[in-house]
Design brief:
It is a single chain. By secondary structure, this protein is mainly α. The chain has one domain. It has 5 helices and 2 strands. It has a two-stranded antiparallel sheet with strand order 1-2. Strand 1 (about 130) and strand 2 (about 130-135) form a beta hairpin. Helix 2 runs antiparallel to helix 3 and helix 3 (about 50-85) runs antiparallel to helix 4. The longest helix has about 45 residues, at about 145-185. The relative contact order is 0.09. The structure holds protoporphyrin IX containing FE (HEM) (2 copies). One protoporphyrin IX containing FE binds next to helix 2, helix 3, helix 4 and helix 5.
């Protein structure tokens, strides 16, 4: 698929660059969240640093919610600049990409919320952002802890499946950029 000059221009505008910067910072946070989450869930009680690992996972989880708010504001700026000039061409390729990105946003919101549901149901005042106690979003309810754990598990791994799909979809773009960077470095 070849990009039109208008799209190329829109991609190079500063709002799009900002969007991609937040994208990579958040991608790094998700990597940390998946590694810490799947690791800590398998540690037995009494393992040294287990509770610190839980606190760290929850802090990064809360941090990505803040970053998501920032990202949505930047995305709105990108759309405003891009689509007030030219409406998108509703090709099947565009629709597929748009649908996947929409699902990714839904999961970027739903996964941390399910984490709050799980942690708040277990104990109130249980989520801290690097030491700062965050208000509860859900009431404490020991009867819902197992449901919370299951929901967080399934939503998190469905999100991971979507990320893998997205990475495969974007692989061509990444390869093209890599080749462009190599060409640029060779010229120097
Ligand atoms: C780790 C979790 C990831 C999430 C949640 C995610 C999500 C998204 C979303 C929603 C967009 C649309 C632009 C935006 O609103 O930011 C996007 C764009 C993009 N993503 Fe990811 N992404 C992730 C990881 C990756 C990875 C690992 C790659 C590398 C292969 C990648 C490559 C790209 C590229 C190249 C674009 C730009 C697409 C375009 O030009 O329209 N992403 N990503
Ligand atoms: C996008 C953000 C997040 C991602 C991708 C994520 C991902 C994960 C993953 C993959 C697991 C391991 C599940 C398992 O294998 O059993 C996990 C566990 C856990 N997560 Fe998250 N998480 C996120 C945000 C949060 C937040 C915001 C909280 C709390 C406020 C939280 C609390 C927990 C807890 C307490 C566990 C341990 C589950 C157990 O002991 O069985 N997570 N998370």
């Amino acid at each position: 698929m070849t990009s039109t000059p208008v799209i190329k221009k829109a991609r190079l505008n500063s709002a799009f660059k900002q969007l991609m910067s937040v994208h990579w910072v958040m991608a790094a946070c998700y990597l940390v969240l998946f590694i810490t989450g799947s690791g800590m869930a398998r540690l037995s009680r009494g393992t040294p640093f287990r509770s610190e690992l839980y606190d760290f996972h929850k802090s990064i989880g809360a941090l990505v919610v803040g970053l998501l708010t920032w990202r949505i504001l930047v995305l709105l700026r990108v759309w405003w600049r891009k689509y007030t000039k030219n409406l998108p061409k509703f090709t099947p390729d565009w629709t597929r990409k748009f649908a996947l990105h929409t699902f990714l946003y839904i999961f970027m919101f739903a996964v941390p919320v399910s984490g709050f549901f799980f942690s708040n149901s277990y104990k109130s005042n249980n989520v801290k952002l690097f030491g700062l106690t965050l208000p509860d979003l859900f009431p404490q309810n020991s009867g819902l802890v197992d449901l919370g754990r299951n929901i967080h598990f399934w939503i998190a791994y469905t999100f991971l499946a979507l990320i893998i799909l997205h990475t495969l979809q974007q692989w061509k773009v990444v390869k093209a950029n890599w080749r462009r960077l190599q060409g640029f470095l060779q010229k120097k």
